[in-house]
Amino acid sequence: MTATSRVDLPLLPLGRGSDPASERGVDCPGDLPPASDPALVERARAAKQALGDRVFVLGHHYQRDEVIEFADVTGDSFKLAKDAAARPDAEFIVFCGVHFMAESADILTSSAQQVVLPDLAAGCSMADMARLAQVEDAWDALVDAGVADRVVPVTYMNSSADIKAFCGRHGGTVCTSSNARTALDWALAQHGPDTKVLFLPDQHLGRNTAVLELGMSLEDCVVWNPHRPDGGLRPEQVRDARMLLWQGHCSVHGRFTGEVVDRIRAEVPYVQVLVHPECRHEVVTRADLVGSTEFIIRQVEAAPPGTVWAIGTELNLVRRLAAAHPEQRIMFLDKTVCFCSTMNRIDLPHLVRSLESLAAGRVENVIEVDPATAEWATVALERMLSLPG
Ligand code: 13P
Ligand code: SF4
């Protein structure tokens, strides 16, 4: 196999510097209203009202309360991708979420619509763990190993548009935490029983879905380390694996541990542990219920009063669920885990600036995927949207 080439990974402070190919942080110019401005809520309301149906505000479940208040719809990344496409009449989509979600919204909406991300530094550290040059190197290594014609690349929605386009070009698809099982079932049927999946960029979602939902063993899964030649794998490991898991993870969900689940069970009687599949395998195997953000919300909404929950997902959502369901006892799985710092970059001052700029006729912070990337990313996204369920 070939050696992996080195790929630059600039470490830019969030919101400063410039690296348009990265989710890691870019300049975010423009005047921002101070967070202490007591009129912010009124300003957001007035700007949104002035824009009327011209604007459609999408809010991911991990966004702050102050932002969710102005969202026309809320959802996980799967639901928001579909919702974005369902409002062709809106001139502007203001995406309160992170960069890869806004890119998907741009791809799925018409060219007459513009997608705005209120803070361009709202990227995703997981998405940054798979860069196109690294994935192309990995693919070349799989070609040299003689297995690439049996490999189907599947990327989690949490990846940049060029990675989605790579999957589209190579016969693969996109998945979200809501439909990962269906997407893997589809992918594994593409080249008969010897099919392998290259799963990007979240090793945990790939492993948890393969083992817990498709009945594979942990030995069927190997981890491709993009920083090592040939992924750090021996040829026989690549030949025998069914799942080639990219070495990426979520910096929030990856922090929950099996130990913390054991501790909460010992300390809290009748607790039900409910976690997102981006958590490590040792966490999901100890949990009572595992599922996407929408799944987590549905479980809580359907539970009887008095249910005790320890929830392992982003803190903004857990707090909102706890506030909306005082009849249940809802706690955060691990109090040492923080908010998603990039999701949290979208705050009321950034939203107000975006809405007021649009109302004044200035379209700032537009997310626009180049046409060649968009063409192939659309192929991968449409394959996903046509999957059953
Ligand atoms: P979902 O929205 O698919 O549940 O993903 C969670 C997440 O980490 C989004 O960044
Ligand atoms: Fe990325 Fe994790 Fe934050 Fe989602 S929660 S945006 S996957 S770092």
Automatic annotation (TrEMBL):
Subcellular location: Cytoplasm
Alphabetically ordered keywords of this record: 4Fe-4S, Cytoplasm, Iron, Iron-sulfur, Metal-binding, Pyridine nucleotide biosynthesis, Transferase
Cofactors that this protein relies on: [4Fe-4S] cluster
Chief subcellular location: cytoplasm
Pathway as given in its UniProt record: Cofactor biosynthesis; NAD(+) biosynthesis; quinolinate from iminoaspartate: step 1/1
Region annotated Disordered, chain positions: 1-34
SUPFAM superfamilies (alphabetical): NadA-like
EC number: 2.5.1.72
Residues at which iminosuccinate binds: 60, 77, 156-158, 177, 276-278, 293
GO molecular function terms listed in the Swiss-Prot or TrEMBL record: 4 iron, 4 sulfur cluster binding; metal ion binding; quinolinate synthetase A activity
Pfam families: NadA
One biological process term in Gene Ontology: 'de novo' NAD+ biosynthetic process from L-aspartate
A cellular component annotation (GO) from this entry: cytosol
Cofactor, how bound (note): Binds 1 [4Fe-4S] cluster per subunit.
Function, in words: Catalyzes the condensation of iminoaspartate with dihydroxyacetone phosphate to form quinolinate.
NCBIfam families from the UniProt entry: nadA, PRK09375.2-2, PRK09375.2-4
Family per similarity comment: Belongs to the quinolinate synthase family. Type 3 subfamily.
UniProt-recorded name of the protein: Quinolinate synthase
Species of provenance: Marmoricola endophyticus
